[in-house]
Amino acid sequence: WEDKGVLEEKGGDVLVNVNMVDTEKAKKNVELRKKKPEYKPYEEEESVDDMVVFKHKGVLSKYDEEIEGERKKSFKLDSVGMADGSRERELQNIRDSLQIRAQSLDLPNLHLASEYYTPEEMTTFKKTTRRVKKIRKKEKPVKAEDLLPLASRAASRISGPGPGAGVNGERL
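-> structure tokens emitted (172 positions)
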């Protein structure tokens, strides 16, 4: 049985083989003592499928376990005693949806560009419409008859008290 706190009620009972745990710890200790650099000269380059399924590859991926903690390999059994593959099905559904959404990077067939536009291409351009400039209307020529009412108003202003007039309109 695996050790766990008294108040923890996380999941069901967990069976652990003590011998397997001891051998895993021993293997890990041996690997830590070796600390060989991971040199993989013939590691495969990324393929198109690897680009669709995102695989996080860190710069110093050999230290990921120390940062993130040890990843335990485990599986769950259902009530019948068979391995529950719900996680694998879930991951496969995610992979399928990513493959569906993958975009093709194929380019359309290339063709030589001509130096002149075809009549069909010319019709696609928007034709600009010329604005009509508004011409200012010319004023009618002024006649003497139109100026007579203005002259009478001006005369009344001139005859009235001007600047420097006193209280009664007298000039000082």
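The chain has a mean pLDDT of 73.
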